[in-house]
Amino acid sequence: MSGSQLWAVDVYGRGFSLWAAGGRWRRVADLLLELKRVTGSQHCCWGIGCDHQVYLHVYPSQVPIRHQEKTYENQRWNPVDGYTDTLLPTDRWQWTDESGLNPQPLHSFVLPSANWEWEGDWYVDDESCGRESSETGGWEYAVDFPATFTKEKKWNSCVRRRRWLRYRRYKALGSWAKVPLDRARPPPEPFTDISCGGWDMSDSPEKHIYLWAVSQQGKLWFRTGIRQQNPEGTCWEPIQVPQEVAQVSAGPKDLLWVVLWDGQLLARTGINKDCPKGSSWELVQPPNQKGAVHVAVGLTVVWAVTKDNKVWFRRGVNSHNPTGSGWISIGGEMLMLSMGPNDQVWGVGSDDRTVYFRHGVTATEVTGRSWVAVSAQLDGSASTNHSSVHVQSDASVFAGEVTTPSQGSVLGCDDTDIPKPRVPKITSDSFISALVSDRSAPAHDPPSVAHPSVPEDNQMKSQESDSSVLSPSSLSDGSETPWSNVDLEEMKGSVPSSTRSSVATYPIELQHNTVVQEELPPWAWVTGGGCDISSSSHVDLFNISGATQLKQSSLTHPQPLPQPHVVLSITEGTYLKLLMCDSVRVTRGCMCWWRDWTPHQWEDVSVTLEQVTGAGAQTGDVLYLYYTHDQEKKYVYAVIKEVTALVPVFRDSLYTMAVYTPERTKQRCPILLATPSQQDFNTWLSLLNESCCASRGLGEHPSKQAMWAVTCKGDVMVHEPSPSLEAPAQYLPCEHMFWRQVPAHLLCVESNSLGVVWGIAHDHTAWVYTGGSRGPSAQGKHAPCSISDVRSVYIYENQRWNPMTGYTDKGLPTDRYMWSDASGLRECTKDNTRPPSPQWTWVSDWAVDFGVPGGTDKEGWQYAADFPVTFHGYKTIKDFVRRRRWARKCKISLTGPWQKVPPIALTDVTVLPCLAQCSLEQVPVWAISEKGDVLCRLGVTTNNPSGNSWLHVGTDQPFKSICIGGGHQVWAIARDGAVFYRGSVSAHNPAGECWYHIPSPPKQTLRQVSVGRTSVYAVDENSNLWYRQGLTPSYPQGSAWELISSNVCKVSVGPLDQVWIIADKVPGYPSESSGTVCHRLGVKPMQPKGLSWDFGIGVNIVPTYHHHHHHLHHALLHFPVCCSLHPSCSPCPVPFQTNVTIYF
């Protein structure tokens, strides 16, 4: 923008300004003025002179700065003289302010400084604007002075007053003017540093600027009274600081940091528009042990420079969290930094004293990509007729000296030694001399390649230099044959150890009338507070794009030892593609948060995801929630690497996701974030999923060793186990397991470590996962297809009998709703019942469901004595209530890597667990059809996971559960609870020979069985967990059942006999129903029953079942785990049913 201006001071104290639209460095008009520090805003610039006085430069404007002075003349009426200046002793003074409490005679008004001048004499304010007074004379009348004044004179008006005005105008616009000392106050100590900010703290049109300064004794001062009509301010006020201050930096809003003499930092808290000075300090440790020497504060960012000139970026800084969370190392060595209005970064190099700009800084890429040198020439250059190299444009301020990506690192370990960058000035003479001395290049070199030799003391060595453009001033010998249109490239030959080269793709032309550029001075300070530009803006300051094309051979990266650097003129598109550097990426948005405290309700919050990209920085992603409670700014955060699950739900007509962490899993209180927009929800869910996977190094598709799960909503989740998941020394607790979503909607999932994954939908359709296929034909065959599922939504119609009318919908006051859910606690009518989420659509109308457990009469009714008791399908004389279930089908369609397996509908499926490196001709897959038939799938391989055909296994009754374990052990449970073992099953005889009946536990009916290597566990209808004793290779049926635990919904046993269950109850949470994943600890070969349970993620878990296996130390452990989390009335209603099969 045309009004954006950059200010800088060289080491000689000379001040310069540079317009962002392009141009040259222009020295301040006052040649005698010597400055040490400057700080700028979009309206003015402040500075500290070498005389330790404060100077102010207000930018010229068409609107003058005028200040109105006013005073009131008071008179009282007496019977003799009328209204006179003679007042009573108890009256106010003759000339006062409006309140009458302070005397203000005309002669008491003086100009605050020599920078002001009067715009005329005093005049009466009678709406005549200084012209001749009207008839009223500007008087206002009242009965007495404390009363209300009016323009109308009445018979009892004993006093009157009128206002006198005079304007003064600020006349020092466009020039540096000394700020006067405070009146009647002792002058503060000499200042050594100064910083202005806070102009964006308020939304009012008038922007207030708050000025901070540091004195020689380490005290901090605050300038009051600065506003648009009073740019100089009123007075200096001291601010209490616990230690001596060395430097201060204020941001455009409410951020303020200071550097202490001992290298530590302080962040000011409590700053707002009503309290611009803040309330307290918080100590911040420096980035390294050497300590900080400089800090630069922006809108929501903080940069720092340590004593070794290293550059650092502070993560997590926000007005809600002014201290931030950690430091990131940014490449480059700087003396100081300055922030622009939109967090653009400027700096002065520590070695070459050049002004740099951080290229690539945006609202998202807050750390930018590289440093670009500002190479604008000084104004006032002379013209010469000597032959010289022509500099393309004097408006090209940024030389295109672009540094390589910085090595960002999360603070938390010893500092890594970074090669010390040094970018000495290369004078025009040395550059041209190098060109002239290399005119006679070796004959075998390409004609467009030159080998410039730069003296040792004039060599260019940039710590992050990918490209730079040199600005020569004159030729060493104008009589020599000129060079025309030469392109410099990187040296292809050997480089002598005593020399280093700077190579450029740089057009050089011969012209007779060119400008001899004066060499830039070494800079000492720069301020970009008033330079409002962005990296995406097309500004002539950035000479990053050029006509020449980037050559791959011309790009080098910094090495620990001195290497030839490349000076390039590159196109911006190529530049952004190649310079992929470590950085901090920030994504911001607004969502609703189910707050943690009572009363629980939705709270509007600002959501920020801070991602750190680069080697070794994957652990640094953090999710922040910023909110205001009781007028106090607060925040909640979650480290992305600690997130264990992102579960989508639909609640209160909002698209909601539950963010689980280990701590919140234990508390049963996930972070609930919601938005009314499905597009925003999908964007955030995808972004958080990508961040979670990137922080753990996970690929796009689940691995063959992944653990699969299904929520009670049908969402498919997977967990990538580490090789040490079952190692006792590095055991991963259940609540630390990370689950991510796979596109699908299923009832259960089964998998093994060969990548064979089967699933069953709610409509009993079988699906096979094809995303893990590694075959050459996987590209076309396993492309994402549409996967659909159909499920029913149920509501209950309830009625009570009375002697007059029989069964009616008029219940007792204590009864449940007459239209409700199964529990009767929630009202559910046909009109207000919706599909589970907006992804579902109705595919049928409401109809009476006659397939309710317990049976119904011909109209679908079930009867009971009262609502809480068990219902039955026939009416008795003692039945006073009845209900019937209504069902309506809905359908969901998703796109994912799944293949449908027609035509038989299934209710259960199991896959043989096996080692990852084993080679099976066929993978045994057993299933149970919807009719209860036992089936064996033939032709299942890793390249053909869906198999070829079904083989029917004969039974004399329908079955409901089946499981295949190590050694082809097949156990099954019939619908009446009878347990069977299939004999003679092998790779050559996949269907086995016959069924052996196994006695059930005494007086118990089993409903589910799980088989490991030498262990068999089962769960009965009363949620008891049983262990089968006496299993041997010669007698695989075992001898007896032993009770292990109660409150178990599902069990899964692995190939190494590890045991996972779904707990019906969790200790400490009696209100929860089934749904927590638990792992059996202490399972050993000599102790297969284990010792205790490790409780993991889950809320209200109702399981389905499947297998998974993972190879560990050439041993096999298989355990299918099934769990689900159901909604609850607590603020943690996240459904998560995990159908997990885990193999090791």
Automatic annotation (TrEMBL):
Q: Which Pfam families does the record cross-reference, listed alphabetically?
A: Hyd_WA (PF06462), Pex24p (PF06398)
Residues in Peroxin/Ferlin domain copies = 64-125, 138-171, 788-849, 860-893
Compositionally biased residues, Low complexity: 465-480
Annotated region Disordered: the residues are 404-424, 438-501
Q: What keywords were assigned to this record?
A: Repeat
InterPro entries from the UniProt entry: Beta-propeller_rpt_TECPR (IPR006624), Peroxin/Ferlin (IPR006614), TECPR1-like_DysF (IPR010482), Tectonin_beta-prop (IPR051513)
- Coiled coil (UniProt feature): none
Q: Tell me where the transmembrane regions lie.
A: none
Q: Would the keyword Repeat turn up in this protein's UniProt record?
A: yes
Which GO cellular component terms, listed alphabetically, does the Swiss-Prot or TrEMBL entry include? Answer: bounding membrane of organelle; cytoplasm
**Member of which family?**
Belongs to the TECPR1 family.
User: What's the name of the protein?
Assistant: Tectonin beta-propeller repeat containing 1
